[in-house]
Amino acid sequence: MEACHSPQQSNVTSYGATTLAITTLEVFAGMWINAFIVCVLCIDWMKKKTLNSNEKILLLLGCSRFCFLCFSWVYCSFSITYPNYLYVQLTFQLIVFFQSFFNCCNLWVSACLCVFYCIKITNFRNSFFIYLKVKIDKMVPWLLLASVLSALAIGIIAYDMADTNLSNNCNSSRQGNFSIVSGKMDKHFFQTYFIYGFGFVTSFTGVISSALLLLFSLWRHKRRMQKNSMNSLSMDAHIRAMKSILSFFIMYSINFIFLILSLIPSTKEENYVALLGLLYLYAFPGVHSLILIFSNPKLEKTLIRILSFVNEFWCVGKKG
């Protein structure tokens, strides 16, 4: 492998050390949360020899988020501590490829999950929605395959972009032009940024449409229950579902904004706005997966059982 610059010792600033410490906590917490989802679903898969559509989506989502956090932490830690060991041929391109692939896979599968919930829960009498409700279980594997292929295409684009950017930086460094930064973006970079952003916009559009349709359907169902004077427990359950979906929509909206900002080169400077965006991007996979755990009865019961066991073991250890 060929490095652009000669290796040098780590020169970590207080800003970099703080960023690395916080992101490390977020990443490892998110990895444990998503690893829990994957382990529970895989054990259940081995027992039942099958998974329903919801579990298939959650399994792929947990795997993609776990891998995304792994590669993101490697990229973040090396870029802060030993950047000259990161920005070398092939190493940098591969990390960017896998990080982009798993990140986009995370976004697309999240959109699939939202679309799945929308079709399963909505009560629209439109013939198209009725057809989708009947066929959605057969469509889920194809939606997941399309998500993986789309993420793979964006990952390849990111790899090509990283390769071109690294080659240009290496050429400039060999010529001694370390401080020269071009103010123009050539046609190649415009196309790659456009396609890269297009993947985010498309997935986010699916999430927005599904969330709004689902909220509208639940609102109509709530009004119908009020008119029919049905029991308050059922109404409270629907209200909690609406709050849960609304919180998901808000989280995904903020996540999308930071993802778009992360594509803009001017936001890469070391400032507190960039730090806030980075911390949120790394916290989102873990926090949202935790919400999904408490929204799934099987995962929630398993987590509570494990926490109860750990608490009892801890209490016995303290008494001993």
TrEMBL record:
InterPro entries: TAS2R. Keywords: G-protein coupled receptor, Membrane, Receptor, Sensory transduction, Taste, Transducer, Transmembrane, Transmembrane helix. One of its GO terms (cellular component) is membrane. Its main location: membrane. The keyword rRNA processing does not apply. One of its GO terms (molecular function) is bitter taste receptor activity. The chain crosses the membrane at residues 20-45, 57-75, 95-119, 140-159, 193-219, 245-266, 272-295. Gene3D superfamilies: Rhodopsin 7-helix transmembrane proteins. It comes from the Eukaryota. The keyword Transmembrane helix applies. Pfam families: TAS2R. It is found in: Membrane. It is a multi-pass membrane protein. Belongs to the G-protein coupled receptor T2R family. This is Taste receptor type 2. It comes from Cyanoderma ruficeps.
